[in-house]
Amino acid sequence: MLERVLCAEYDDCFTIMVKYMTSKSPLDEWKFLIGTWKGKTKAGQFGEKGVIEGTAVFSCEPSSSFIMGTGENWCEGRLLNKSIAILFYDDGEKKFRRKTFFSYGFVNNEVECVRTKDTIKFDITTEPLSMQIGPGMLWRSTIRKISDTKIATGLEMAKPGEEFKSYGESILEKTK
Fold this sequence. Notes:
The chain is mostly beta strands and 176 residues long. The chain contains one helix and ten strands, in the order H-E-E-E-E-E-E-E-E-E-E. Strands 1-2-3-4-5-6-7-8-9-10 form a ten-stranded antiparallel barrel.
């Protein structure tokens, strides 16, 4: 009798473990990002007068539970910034999170605030707080799937008590 109980408990644990290991993560829907992307903005966005051109390379680093992106942005022949971002799905919170490290010397801690089939929008807090642009300003970032080979990344800002408005958007196309 004890043997049957132990086997049943073992079978239940094994079933749960297999189910967990084979369950689909919302991150899987974004694996199409893996590869190299190039894009640009329209003139006059992200606080720049000219067109910003950028590249991004996405990979599953340090494991398939993450999507890491490295990027560079240039405007009129000068490097604006370099970045490294780590996107992951927090099973406990049931939200996407992203940490983006910029060559400017700050980190954006991003937590999903809105998600649809093709869009993830993140509320942003910046570290160190002294690097926060504009006292009391609220910031949001967006990644939007246009197709398997085209995405839009954007930034929105809101002054205290006001609605969010676009600060800029880049359209990127997959090159490989």
